[in-house]
Amino acid sequence: MIKVVFTFLLLLSAQSVMAQIIVSPDGGIRSIKEAVELAEPGAHIQVQPGTYVEHNIGIDKPLTLEGIDYPVIDGNNEGYILVINSDSVTVKGFEIKRTGRSYVRDYAAIMIEGAKDFIIEDNRLEDVFFGIYLAQTERGVVRNNRVEAFDTREASSGNGIHLWDVKNPQIIENEVLGMRDGIYLEFVDNAEIYGNISNDNNRYGLHYMFSDGGRYYDNIFRRNGAGVAVMYSDNVDMMNNLFEHNWGTAAYGLLLKDINYSKIEGNRFYRNTVAIYSEGTNEVHIHANDIELNGWAVNIKSNSARNRFTENNFIENSFDVRTDSPRNNNEFVGNYWSQYEGYDLDRDGIGDVPYRPVSLFSMVITKQPESLILLRSMFIKLLDTAERIAPVLTPKTLYDEQPKMDRIRR
Amino acid sequence: MSLLMHIIKNEWKSLLRGKWVIGYGLIFLILTDTLLRFGGGGAETLLSLSNVMLLFVPLVGMIYGILYIYQSREFVELLLTQPINRRVLYWGLFLGISTPLMAAFIVGSMLPLGWHGILMIDGMASAMVLGLGGVLTLIFAALGFVFGLMFYEDKIKGFGFTIVVWLFLAILYDGLVLMLVFLFGNYPLENFVIAVSMLNPIDLARIMVMLEFDVSALMGYTGAVFNRFFGTTLGITTASVMLLVWLAVPTWIGLNVFRKKDF
Question: With an 8 Å Cβ cutoff, are A370 and B218 in contact?
Answer without folding.
Answer: no
